[in-house]
Amino acid sequence: MTTAPVVDTPAVSTGTPVVPRRKGVLSHWRLYAAISPFYLLFLCFGLIPVGFSLYLSFHRWDGLGEMEWAGLAQFRYLLTDGGFWSSIGNTLIIWGLATFPMIFLAMVTAVMLNSAVRLKNVYRFAYFLPNVTSVVAVAIVFGSVFSTNFGLMNALLQAVGLDQVAWLNTPWGIKVAVATLMTWQWTGYNAIIFLAGLQTIPSDLYEAARIDGAGPVQTFFRVTLPLLRPTLLFVLVVSTVTGLQSFAEPQVLLQTTANESAFSGGPGHAGRTMVLYFFQQTFDNNDFGYGAAVAWGIFLVVVLFSIINWRLVQRRGED
Questions:
Q1: pLDDT at 6 over 80
Q2: N or C: which end of the chain has fewer CB within 10 A?
Q3: Options 1.25.40.340, 3.40.190.150, 3.30.2130.30, 1.10.3720.10; which CATH number does 88-318 get?
Q4: Per-residue pLDDT reduced to its tens digit, 26-48
């Protein structure tokens, strides 16, 4: 009896592609668990407080009793509140006096650091140190510098034959003092950012510009500045966000008397910024509902000016 040979027959293809089985979300639970602490902390200390502040802005609440529904009344009052608008004006003036000189000094410092040959790391540490120094300690020192009777600034003015200036008792003196403190604090930080941007520019471009006969000034405006525009945009937006939220600098620098609020902003409220006004309404007046409305007004102002600065820089880049 003979047996038929076994012939391997190929599998018949049905024409339907084999789709790999997708793994469920639970199969990656270890990865989600590894990154969950950040999102849990952000939820507890970020999203929930923001949502509660929005809810609170539609109510009247003194922090202890029951909340009373107010609807849009507090936002309508915010639009006509002279104190809030004056705080916006003070903040914008201080921001302008601090930001533009700070950006100029930071860029000049970055160019010098980029061309330094020796002790680069020492210079970088020295310029970055003011940013990590306690704002309270720095404000106390600057309060002595701008003191009317014994301040260093008035001593320098007298040395060149000029009269003393009551820096912390006049509206413009207060704004200049606060802006000078903020400029000193943030110049080194932004210089390091500009330095990082400068080091990404290829050296071949500078060599080509030098061969074409371009001087240092032409090289800066035709090569360095256009390629540094993204970094400049970042610095300008960050400076806008931080500058429009200034709080500790005027609050500590403008030390008040026993009869004045800790958030008054000095004589004539000349140094009362938007955040100081928010703290005054919330903690001095115990009006947490209106304070939440002020906080959302500050948010809209910061976003608006950030967008304006971003658009201005982008438009110049396109031109």
A1: no
A2: N
A3: 1.10.3720.10
A4: 777 788 888 888 889 989 998 99
